[in-house]
Amino acid sequence: MAAEGTGSAGSQTLSRGIRLLELLADADRNLSIDELAAQLGVHRSVAYRLLRTLEDHGLVARDNAGRITLGTGLAALASGVARDLQQVALPELSEVANELGMTCLLAVQVDADEAATLVSAAPRQSMAVVSYRPGHRHPLTRGGPGKAILLSLPEHQWADAATPALRAEIAESRERGYAVSHDEVVPSLRSVAVPLELPGQPHAAIAVIHVSFSRPEAEIAARLTAAAASVRRAYGA
After folding, report:
1. What is the C-alpha to C-alpha distance for residues 207 and 168, in angstroms, rounded to an integer?
2. pLDDT of residue 119
3. Is the pTM of this model over 0.90?
4. What is the pLDDT of residues 98-122, one digit of tens each?
5. CA distances from 84 to 73, 79, 231, 233 (A)
6. pLDDT given at position 4
7. DSSP strand pairing (137-139 vs 114-121)
8. DSSP track, 147-213
9. Is residue 69 within a helix (H) or strand (E), and if so which, with residue range?
10. Element (H, E) at 120
11. Which of 110, 140, 151, 191 could be bridged to 144 by S-S, CB 3.0 to 4.6 A?
């Protein structure tokens, strides 16, 4: 019984540490220990111990005010995730970003309910560059990339949160071949996204995000569709 309890406690500690990293990835600013403890639902001392361990491994760091941010150690870990897909996709994402003047990203399905940004590219020259960090997670039912992934999934695999209104929207999006969103994941941001299917890889989507679009959504989607085709060819699919 003692061994079982220890294993359970260890799993809880690991789960909490991972959740702390997710909270930091989703935040639009550095967070204090008190804020992280409150969001995690634990005492400050528990959050502090978790953060010290993560800090020792370079997974989190502190700014000059003592607030917590993601550490550079995560970059080394992230570089090994779907490395071949990242290497194939990044040149295409960069080309789209520079051509359209918008941040372009590749998101992948990470579980039954969520998608995460795998890699992103910002335009070299733009008056307003939108930063969208790899690792950012959001529900499949919200945002252009998540909805574009749903276009590739049979309805019985959709999350329970898929409402009748969303199902009607996805049906409409499937007819035109792309998904759109506004103010769904990050306030004030718009998105256009298309699905990307590759053998041996999770369901994915290529998307652009910006505060406004200078081109029609259909024109943007056509460019993304061409980029998705280029990624498939480069991947050998």
Report:
1. 21
2. 87
3. no
4. 999 999 999 998 888 888 888 899 8
5. 20, 10, 11, 13
6. 39
7. antiparallel
8. HHHHHHS-GGGS-TT--HHHHHHHHHHHHHT-EEEESSSSTT-EEEEEEE--TTS--EEEEEEESS-
9. strand 68-70
10. strand 114-121
11. 191
